[in-house]
Queue: 4 jobs
Job 1
Amino acid sequence: MKRLVMSLLAASTVAAIAPAAAQAAPWMSINERQANLEQRIDQGVQSGQLTRRESMRLRSEFRSLNRLEAHYRRTGGRLDMRERADLDRRFDRLSAQIHYQKHDFQRR
């Protein structure tokens, strides 16, 4: 009996927390993500956290992702779920690269 009550309590807790967790990280459009990444690169250059070589490499990767998005939109007219997931994964990787490069203690 005690095991049943504990499992019901755990299930109800998870059910109550799940919607709050989903609202904590709002969905961002592709354009918002692109603007955010570009702004982070610009800020890193202005603050000196990114060297010239680092910023050139990050901007090159950023332009490559923009070209890939344009290709996806040309071929289907809009992004399907697979294409969106691919772009999200690539944007996540670029975001991690920006973070790493900004915090690697190399200064301009």
Job 2
Amino acid sequence: MNKRTLALTLEEYHDIINTMKKGFSGCRPNNRVATALVIEANLGLRISDILKLKLDDIVKDGDRYRLDITEQKTGKKRVFTVLPELYNYLKIYCLENGIKPHEIIFPIGERNVQKQLKIICDYLEIKGVSTHSFRKYFATSIYVNNDYDIVTVQKLLQHSTPDVTQRYIGIEPQKIEKALKKHIQLI
């Protein structure tokens, strides 16, 4: 894990994706990379797993969808729910781009994604960002928006212990600062 890779804020996430979709002088729009990063930020998968996804990998299971994959990095099997909104977002992207359900949705390499992300982040003057920042954004957002439930985040990321997840999202220093602020008694 690269500890220098930061979790994005919501504002940074929006700025990066919107700029990537619109482009700017000297940089064409790149909806493919933007969409791949949106999927990473909403599923919490590593970019290596996102770039292998096919629409057929997402299966209707009753009134919901599920994704059943083996993570490339860890070799761990992962089965989880994909919200209908996210499935429909991907389905529309595939329809608009002529991608058939059995085809890889994002036929690009990780280096291409990183290169495009660097161009956008340099333009926006955002430092410490890599594709992994979108996975960290997912983890941090889930943690904060679900009553600081570290075990839920641990399970979603498939970490071995809550301690690993705490280090991953960098909450240890936050806890220490909060404890110190509650304790201070200046006279």
Job 3
Amino acid sequence: MKFDLQICFAKPVSKVLRAPKARIRLSPIGYCLLLCLYFLRPVSAAESDKLSVYAPRARYSIPVVSFDGRQYVGLLDLIEPLGTPELKPEGKRWKLRLPDPKASGKFADAEIEQGSSGIKVRGRQTTLSAPARVENHRLLLPLHGIGTVLIPLLGTDVTFHESARRLFLGGTASAISTELRKGEPSILALHFAEAVNPNIHSEGNALILSFTRDPVVSFSEKEALNDKLFSSSAYEEKNGAATLTINGNAPLLAKFAENGRTIIISAAPAPPAATAAASSPSTEQPQESPEAAVQAPSAGEPVLPSAVPPPARRPATPAFVVVIDAAHGGSDTGARITPNLPEKEITLSLARKLRQELQARHIAVSMLRDSDSDVTLEQRVLAANLARPSVFVSLHAEPGGTLRIYTPVLPASSGTPLERNTFLPWQSAQGAFSAESSSLASAAAAAMDKRKMNAQVRPAFLQPMHSIAAPAIAIEVPADSKGAKIPEDRLAGALAEAIAERKPNAGGMQ
């Protein structure tokens, strides 16, 4: 068969394909070629380049820009979270001054000239790998060889994984230690020098842990585990993040232990038979010793209740309740937005603003914490489910510029849909509400878009959402040294509007 295919687009292919009046008649081969053109097009929404910095008192990410094939970072972006620097231009010469990290009451300084590769740090001349640049009134330094500036300026050691753009200051890098305990089934314990908070999600039988804020490293890229449950592990660093993938021969489940310093990976529990949950579960939570945390829990001593009771409401419970979870709190500070601003303060402030907006719409609210208090993940699940919520919202913050809405990813999937009016498996109670959670996330994104806030909707294994017996979403707001980058009243108003639409007879409310 011989044919000629000639297609001219005045608009991007994606817009032509969506245009209701566009009609293109193609042979089957021509149609396949068109699809290839569409799917091989450049993706404009690709994640932007970033540098992750890990210091003893700060963990943050900053943008990376490219000029003439070289990568640059803003000097003030790089230094500001580590102290209170002053950077002033004097013509083409820029002067940096910041408190000396090694000597109280003294200052460290540097002089940089725009367009020059020379730089003077603490009075000593050194050379950059490329000329300094100024773009949009920001002084940019080449990323390659940035240690030649930071080591004398900060008086600290620097470890730079340049290809992955991960910068470790002051010996913060720590290796992941793995411990495989054989059994029926086996468990895999991941040990860390300090508490970690990775983003965890599953893809088939693989469990993927992504570390952006935690300075973890691994000495091996691939490791064969040769176990009946665990087949292998793979470690990768890319664009400011480290990813550890645990490959299994069955669905896997992650659980935190030792206050976040250990992650226990085990086989995901199979959904219980319908006849197995005939009696109400105990809500008593036995205490776990650090030694017992890496032992597979026995069938008679569950760490958590095995099921969530069906939602039979008590007469005193309001018909429509929203549970707000201000993430972290107490000794769990969350991410360090700056050395003096922890994530827990931003989430609590936003939670109070959201409560105010919901109550203004005559919606009952239950706060999981309304002070700087310690609340464990298990306590959050118990309190939330006992409140019989109509909606559950978890609030988070991180350094960066992207507003995200997360929908729950369950630790294990089942071919049988869950029935919410029966006892629900504790670790996957969200399965009976996942469709409503996705709908709520879409409504929240639409409400934010109306207020000129662009939000990305993504699935994530984010504790404790998978155990919540209600439509559940998590919001992660971008933050900087001043707090949330998005005005709290705008964000809370958008969320409250999306939630209020779910209230029965919402159409009559004003």
Job 4
Amino acid sequence: MARSARKPCAAALIATLLLAACTVGPNYRRPALATTAGYGAAAAPPASDDTQPTLDAGADVPAQWWEVYHCAELDALVALALKHNSTIDAARAALRAAQEQVRAQRGASYPQVTGSLQPSRQQFANTLASPLANNEELYSLTTTQVAVSYSPDLFGGNRRAVESLQAQADQQRFELEAARLTLASNVVVAAIQDALLRAQIDQTHAIIDDNREALASFERQLKAGQVSTADLAAQQAALAQAQAALPPLEKSYRINRDLLAALVGRTPGEPVEVRFDLASLTLPEQLPISLPAQLVEHRPDVRIAEEQLHAASAQIGVAKAARLPNIELTATAGSAALALVPEFGSASDFWSLAATLTQPIYDGGTLLHRQRAAEAAYDQAAAQYQGTVVGAFQNTADALQAIWADGEALRTAEAADAATRRSLDIARRQLAAGQGTALAVLSAEQADHQSRLATLQARAGRYDDVAALFQALGGGWWNDQKSAVAAR
């Protein structure tokens, strides 16, 4: 064939390869959000209660959302936990490993170059013909070689593999954000629990003191004949009951202190010297509420599920590309010298160029079923993603419902507390005036004690609800400068 005729053939072959260089498999798109997605009736506070916080629809969530409590000790403790907790360190290491896997897979898109040096000392049996011109049976041979191989990514199999690994790296990034959000929420809740248990212990001590004073009064009244021994025994039982409530509270307090130490990366032998008080915490008068599309964009668990779906989508392309033709180009060059050191010259040089086209013909259905398995894995990831989205809206609506319900509970608890205190004062004055009974005083005391503890529990519950809402909204990681740099 003439040289002029070969040129169009070569150009046609190159054009065919370029046209064939496509990326098979589905191009990933985020699943559409249902137009009816929302929070239902929970998205509006009760109209009859003006003590509830207002909602700012579409407002952004700050990265340091725990600062809404306006407690410097809490801010410092969360910062300490984010810096020293081993769970965060492990998540960062997992992210670095995933990013390195992406870089490693990208390397398959470039030519692979290897060099080798092989010195050897050989002896042939004298019954065989020597490979040398001088018929020597003992000789040295040194082979120096450079090999280059390149597989054009004709159908995008490697590009899809890189895409899948990149999605997995993004998943690890959101795993890190989820770990940070969970850790911050746990610290806030543990701090609120610390303040609540301190208040409950102090209140229980006050209740015990009240019962002791009442018992002393009953003893004096028994001597004066104003109460019976049965009344005195009932007051003694009330004191014992109040004292019995103290050890469980102290146990819970010590366990919670150990939890605070663990959250900041310390052992119980390295206690955290910080104290929290319910009075030092404040509740925001206005709370953000994300729009449905913002919630899907910002919730770490939803983004994790989405990246899993993205990775599964790319794996379909990897499986499809494995069933299509593949070309491998190789080139070698080197020299062979009859010595233990390399020599270079036209007589010892060698080289080769080769191209290999492979096409799976029969494999017992292995590649086909791998593609079908990848498609089934994608369907599984899609279902899990939809379930995670539904759970995210449910979780946020539940947090809002808790805010409204616990706000009403606090209002009624405070009203009940004021009423029981008035009732106890009246019962004690009536008993002193000889118009009431000791049983009425005991009943009023028990109601007063229960209302005090219920008010503390309701107040702490509202603080917990605010933390739960910020966690449900994603925690504002997208506004953190370090997270923004990591995303880029």
